[in-house]
Design brief:
With 557 residues, the chain is α+β, with helices and mostly antiparallel strands. It folds into 3 domains: 212 residues, Spore Coat Polysaccharide Biosynthesis Protein SpsA, Chain A (Alpha-Beta Complex); 101 residues, 2-Layer Sandwich (Phosphorylase Kinase, domain 1), CATH 3.30.200; 231 residues, Aminoglycoside 3'-phosphotransferase, Chain: A, domain 2 (Alpha-Beta Complex). It is built from 16 helices and 22 strands. Helix 10 packs across helix 14. It is elongated, with a radius of gyration of 30 Å. It starts with a strand and ends with a helix.
Length: 557
């Protein structure tokens, strides 16, 4: 048997993702779909394959050149797209006198292709179409004897059934005579004409099979998840017997990611969808996976990442439940219980900073490798002015008018930094509690930076609003523990904390304003008044530094 893989399409329905990656090279669990199809054809006994190409043809050619298949795989470029029929005729010199198989390059299936081919050579008719029941795509009518009765036709005979065409067909070489040379031509026109003239086209409908057309973003993501999730369950629990998998959408955070709990029986895991990749540069998912696996390898309390697909943006990880620190503190009741939680967390925070830095690769970071002056000015100070002061409050303020004061803040935060691994969003909703153990999540923004920043994020967190005396008590305890752990200049530690408290406060107000006003996530708006009060307090606590213009604006909010 010889086979042809149709791979010349533009992938228009998958734009913009197909602007840089041709659809046949979209990966499923890390493997390009084209590679999966070639392997399936090889297992079916195929001796030689030809692939027609057009859109981003160089990438497909390059991929095939790097592989080492046991059978020959040829490429035939179509400078002008010829359609399915035209493509088949264009490689007429490739075919021999035996029936051949044609398969679309955008389908994922476990259909037994050898069984399909054997079925064809034994029934004596010139064409076999492989069909399956697929709601929404059932446009092919099949009569009681298993022959195609029509395409997109209304059912006139209730005993006839309708199925979807899978994009797999087996064709006798005589059919080539029905296709014109060197023009765009749809092979379905040959089939329709043949049926109209009383000819027979056989249907092959497998009893059970998996099949998915990945022609749209939704279907591609569906195929990725349906293939990866069962493997992840089996990897984690080798004795696992798959039942019906349930997907539960979880409440998201401030990012554009979507979160799901996948349940199969009494076992579950978390799936995060970071969004499809549109470029070859580093993406947020890359940092999330690399940093997460690094921290886990150091024995730090983060969820275990089991598997991921960098192109589709899908990550499967340990399920830590639904209880976060915010919920625990709100239910704690007594101040003593609240302080006890934070005392335990400060110990973990120090471990995270010190151990997380060991072996940390700066190339893992997504935005900048360090918490730098430039980052503070752009991502915290300017963000505060644009999103909060101007965007949310409607105040006609100028970043440039405040820039010298912002530079003072940035210089102080960097100068007095006790450097280590920095989480950068260490707040109560990013700390999960499972079986009385704490876990840090959302570490994709990690980099090298001041421990004081993560401590400030934890203590001035608007979701919890710790009283200032409690914050100071915990600050002192952290300084004492850190001194015995790595040795620090205590005065520098406190000074750095004051600067970081303000820069973090600016970032919080910028983020909450942007999320509530632009993203429509209005829940964040509820915490803006608390963050404003905290900023007023922190500015007043910066005794040795005068920030008159910033203080004036904030004081009058």
């Amino acid at each position: 048997m010889k086979a042809m893989i149709l791979a010349a399409g533009f992938g228009t329905r998958l734009l913009p993702y197909t602007e840089s990656t041709p659809k046949p090279l979209f990966p499923i669990d890390g493997r390009p779909l084209l590679d999966i199809i070639i392997e399936n054809l090889q297992k079916a006994g195929c001796e030689s394959i030809i692939i027609n190409t057009h859109h981003l043809h160089q990438k497909i050619t390059s991929f095939i050149a790097q592989q080492h298949y046991d059978i020959s795989v040829h490429i035939r470029l179509e400078p002008v797209i010829l359609g399915t029929g035209g493509a088949i005729k264009n490689v007429a010199d490739f075919w021999d006198d035996r029936p051949f198989m044609v398969i679309n390059s955008d389908i994922l299936t476990d259909i037994d292709l050898k069984q399909v081919y054997d079925f064809h050579v034994n029934h004596g008719h010139p064409v076999t179409l492989v069909l399956r029941d697929y709601s929404g795509l059932n446009h092919v009518t099949v009569d009681q004897e298993g022959f195609i009765a029509g395409f997109y036709d209304p059912i006139t005979n209730r005993s006839f059934k309708k199925y979807a065409f899978t994009g797999i067909h087996v064709i006798d070489p005589d059919i080539l005579n029905c296709i014109p040379n060197n023009v765009f031509f749809n092979i379905m026109d040959v089939y329709k004409k043949r049926i109209a003239e009383g000819g027979k086209i056989k249907a092959f409908v497998p009893e059970r099979c998996y099949w998915e057309d990945i022609g749209t973003l939704e279907k591609y993501k569906k195929a990725v998840i349906e293939n990866m999730a069962p493997r992840v369950f089996k990897k984690i629990w080798p004795d696992h017997l798959s039942k019906r998998m349930e997907s539960i959408r979880l409440k998201g955070d401030g990012s554009d990611r979507t979160w799901y709990r996948l349940k199969d029986g009494d076992r579950s895991l978390i799936m995060a969808d970071h969004g499809m990749r549109t470029h070859s540069e580093k993406a947020e998912i890359d940092s999330f996976v690399s940093i997460g696996r690094h921290l886990y390898s150091k024995g730090l309390p983060v969820p275990r990442i089991y598997r991921h697909d960098a192109f589709s943006g899908i990550v499967f990880m340990e399920d830590l439940g639904d209880l976060n620190l915010q919920g625990v503190i709100q239910a704690a009741g007594s101040p003593e219980k609240i302080v006890a939680h934070y005392q335990s967390l400060i110990k973990l925070l120090i471990r995270l900073s010190v151990w997380g830095r060991k072996g940390f690769d700066l190339s893992w970071t997504y935005q900048t490798p360090y918490y730098s002056r430039e980052l503070i000015l752009e991502k915290e100070c300017r963000y505060f002015v644009d999103a909060f002061i101007k965007g949310y409050c409607g105040i006609d303020a100028s970043y440039e008018n405040l820039e010298d004061e912002f530079r003072c803040l940035a210089d102080g935060a960097v100068q007095f930094s006790i450097d280590g691994f920095m989480h950068r969003d260490m707040q109560s909703r990013n700390i999960m509690i499972k079986n009385n153990e704490y876990y840090f999540i959302d570490f994709q923004g990690g980099r090298i930076g001041p421990l004081q920043y993560d401590l400030a994020s934890l203590l001035i967190d608007p979701y919890v609003a710790l009283p200032h005396p409690v914050q100071f008590q915990l600050l002192e305890e952290c300084a004492e523990q850190l001194s015995s752990y790595v040795g620090i200049v205590t005065e520098h530690f406190y000074t750095g904390f004051k600067y970081c408290s303000i820069t973090r406060n600016l970032q919080i107000l910028g983020a909450f304003s942007y999320l509530s006003r632009v993203k429509g996530k209005t829940d964040f708006e509820n915490y803006i008044p608390t963050a404003v009060r905290t900023l007023k307090y922190n500015l007043s606590a910066l005794e040795d530094v005068r920030l008159p213009r910033l203080t004036f604006i904030v004081k009058n909010l």
